[in-house]
Specification:
Blueprint: E1 2-8, H1 11-19, E2 24-32, H2 49-53, E3 59-66, H3 73-82, E4 91-92, E5 95-96, E6 102-106, H4 112-126, E7 132-136, E8 140-142, H5 150-153
Helix pairs in contact: 3-4
């Protein structure tokens, strides 16, 4: 089992998209890589959705636990790049703001060679530098329960990812 954290716009759609692939064992939406000194209103000073929307500096992020023998990290990242605009700064679809930035937040140095290979190929494909952050995971706070599996609970909910990308 391995874990990677992916920010790519609204986390509702990215979670639903990732959940459909063999090798993805679990997902959880939350708020990642915000400033350590952010003044947040959740329990123990953790960020809430309202804090994130008010520019706490956290990114809407999906924690993806996966089996690398069934779904190698490079393939998982290829899938991620299929549903984001890697050149867009602080925006995916109609969602704009720093919380919608794109980023790959790694959990171990062993992940870096695969991430760098995929990012290099994506940059060559785009012909310009990517607006996708590559950083170690500094922090992650699970989002409120109503955000978890949101599009499963609310099938008509908004998503910047076209429904044709969802198998279910």
């Amino acid at each position: 089992m391995d874990t990677i954290y992916l920010a790519g716009g609204c986390f509702w759609g990215l979670q639903k998209y990732m959940d459909q692939f063999d090798g993805v064992m679990a997902t959880e939406v939350g708020y990642a890589n915000g400033p350590e000194d952010a003044q947040c209103s959740g329990p123990g000073g953790t960020p809430t959705y309202q804090d994130v929307c008010a520019n706490s500096g956290h990114a809407e992020t999906v924690k993806v636990d996966f089996d690398p023998s069934a779904l190698p990290l490079e393939k998982l990242l290829d899938l991620y790049f299929e549903v984001i605009d890697p050149l867009s700064v602080n925006r995916q679809g109609h969602d704009t703001g720093v919380q919608y930035r794109s980023g790959i937040y790694f959990t171990g140095e062993a992940q870096l060679p695969a991430i760098r290979r995929v990012m290099q190929l994506q940059q060559e494909k785009a012909g310009q530098p990517l607006a996708v952050a590559l950083e170690p995971l500094r922090n992650f706070f699970p989002a409120e329960e109503y955000h978890q599996k949101y599009l499963d609970k609310n099938p008509g909910g908004y998503c910047h990812i076209p429904s044709s990308f969802f198998a279910k």
